[in-house]
Every structure is written in structure tokens, then in C-alpha cells.
Predict the 3D structure of the following.
Amino acid sequence: MVVKKTLEAENKPERKPRRPKSSVSGQSRKPRQKAAVRQKRNVAKKAQPKKRLWGETPRWLIWAVTGVVAMAYLCFVYVYYLKPYFYRWDFGDTYAGRPVVHGIDISHHQGEIDWEKLAKAEHTGSGIHFVFMKATEGSDWVDSAFQQNFAKARENGFIRGAYHFFSNTSPAEKQADFFCDHVELLADDLPPVLDVETRGDYGEDSLRLEVKTWLKRVEKHYGVKPIIYASRKFKERFLNDDSLDAYPFWIAHYYVDSLTYQGEWAFWQHTDMGRLPGIHGRVDMNVFNGDLEALRQFTIRPQEKP
């Protein structure tokens, strides 16, 4: 009996002892499972293409797009709003149903001028008829090109004129005398011009008083009423005065299809972007408010010759 039991015991498979159940081992499976799920999700996210947000767009690309849009906008504004008025000398020889005569104003900034070419320039069918030239500024400055341009303009058949740039740093009497000493006006020349563009430290009343002083002194010297040059806004803001309105006005008003100044005007400077044969670069373009015969009558007549 003993032998039989021993053989059975040897042939019987050995059973492994069961591990005792533990609450800790059950809980440890859950973090592992969660970690595996997270890993799968991360792999799936990496597999998907990333969506670029505007903030992640390269800065150079943002600047490039902004620059293209800005250039397109500027081109649109130029073509539809500015270009038609940069070249306002193309409105022919009439304005608002009235005849006009074309002219320019120059200084040393235009450099050497080919007066023969300028005299032959075809411009709106009638060409250029008058030329204003800067002569003096303040009480001690003469334009270096004035004397030559003034003589050449008359030699080439232009109706010529001279202007003084008003300075806020010297008395009007000295400026008037300085202009008269350096500018000799003859019969058939245009009346002298006072160019007033800034008021400096002058109050409105003081500025008008200085302007009147210059005008009266120069009028007495040449025997003819001077012309006042000013921008439309400057005239309406600082030179609105009944006694000043007795003088002819030359109004500067650019890039508009019509002059909005409501008062009487003799000349209109309508652009500073003109181009003409004989002149390198840009030049100011003007019209006289009347026909050629009226312009000749507007000049200093022989009996008015100073």
C-alpha cells in the first residue's frame, strides 16, 4: 500500500500555490490602463496634421501680405483719386466756361532752362504765355537765377513777372525796399507779387498790417497794385480783409478739379507736378482768369511805367 501511494503521488501534477488576492494589485492596473490609453491618443494626435493658427504664421509672411495689401490700396487711391488731379493742365483753354491762359512760376530750383524749347512747347493747343519768377526773399536774399531768367523770358516772348517771398524775420519796409532795389519792372510786365505762406510769430492783425505795409510801399514805387499769392486756406484764415480784397489774388489750390475759393481771383496755381519741354523736373502750373487780351491789359501799361 505504501508503494502504490508513492507512485500515485509521483504521477500527480504539481499545483502552483495561488497568490493571495490583494486590493493593491487591483488598483495598480488602472493607472497602467490609463497610461496606455493616453499613449494611444498621443500617437493618434501625432499622426494627424497640425492646424496652423494665425499666431503661428511666420512673421515674414504676415509682413509680406500686409505690404501687398497696402500697396494695392495706395495704387487704388492714386489711380482713382489723385492721378486725375496731379496733371490738371489738361483741362484745355477754358475753365468753367470761361477762357484761361496757361503759365508757370519758377526759381533757381528748376535749374538751367532751355527757353527756346519752352517757347515752342505745345500745351493745350496754345502753349505757355506767362512766367512768374522768384526774385527776392526777406531783406537780404536774391534768387541766383532771377536776373538771367527774367531777361530770357522777355527775349523769348513770354509775359513775365517777379515775386517776393515774405519773411517773418524782418520788417515789411525793409523787405519792400529790398525788392524794389533788385527788380526793375517795365511796361508789359506783370505787376509785382507778394508771396505770403506763413505767419511765424505774428498775430493775425500784425500779419495783415505787415502785408499792407509791403503792398503800399511797393505800389507807390511801381505805380500799380501788387498781386497777393497765398494758398486758399491761408487766404481764408489770415488774409480775409476788405482792404486786402482790393488787390488781385493768386490762389494756390492743388489736386482739385475746380477752385473752391469763393472770392475774386486773377491767377490759380493748380498743380506743382507740371512737366514741360525745356525744364528738367517738375514745375508749378498756373492759369490766368481770362483770355490772352485780358492778360495783356492786366500787365503794367506804358502810362503806368514806373
